[in-house]
């Protein structure tokens, strides 16, 4: 590098030091591949003294790399049977470039922005169509991931959806359904993605949960959802023993919709003793007090809690530390936030598949360093023992049968 600096050679860019080193490495590796293909070094004859197939010059080609465009000389053989693996015939990009494009796409950059970034930083001209082709390469991987076998039992599954804009004649919001599970080992596992055909509905959720069951999930101890009407019935049709927990945060938000803004703070303060009560009996007592105070003015709020009571109270049977992680859909909301960030820059998508591709890339890049997975396991591992006790050993039995 000191010599390159003294000679006025830049580190990056076309003709830079890294490009020259990349050229040397690629050409050296290709020469090695040809030597292996021919079975002898350059100028060495075969054992029977005949030359047979032999080297036949080079051909130049420019490949796009992570350090910019690099022109390399690819060796050829006389018979034309040499098929290099490092830089294949007709290949114009190294795999590192493809991974870079996928990473930038997962972070929400549009194809035009990715093309401009590669041109500005690396001096590489990559068209939007080429970038689309690169991202399409994940479709096979996505299909395999979407249909992979799942564990036999999960302690908790969080379900939710995000809306994306899809152009089907006209641009309209379409829900992308997602199920996020906590495994018996305390790790996070996103079970799949599905694009619905309209607004979020319990009927389509039953279709999603049935598909999850068909992929090997025989039992789920608890499903945490946002309180969608008729969703508990859809869950129990698939797994009859599953406990459905309504997200307390969504319940509070829905309560405030029926109240005047001037009363929001007072309502929230009076509902807090209900969802922080030590037992279900105590919660019912606190709710009775709330009903006496607000039942006349906000009957709709009282009716909302009465209708959701059976799905609201399950988390009250757990310790306070466990309650925090099962009483809301926060675990999946953080994933949804990343998805929204990725899709917001696109505006809308031409097809369902294009939308799924974008969402898939976003969730596959959630935790590149693995720190989130470690934190998730530390948070959930202590709670799983309590789950197994509370659910009569169904978790242990299901894991043993995997």
UniProtKB/TrEMBL annotation:
Segments of skewed composition (Basic and acidic residues): 35-50
Sorted UniProt keywords: DNA recombination, DNA-binding, Transposable element, Transposition
InterPro entries: Transposase_mutator
Region entry Disordered, spans: 35-62
Record has DNA-binding as a keyword: yes
Function, as annotated: Required for the transposition of the insertion element.
Family per similarity comment: Belongs to the transposase mutator family.
PANTHER family to which the protein is assigned, alphabetical: MUTATOR FAMILY TRANSPOSASE (PTHR33217:SF8), TRANSPOSASE FOR INSERTION SEQUENCE ELEMENT IS1081 (PTHR33217)
Protein name in UniProt: Mutator family transposase
Organism: Streptomyces cellulosae
Classification lineage: Bacteria, Bacillati, Actinomycetota, Actinomycetes, Kitasatosporales
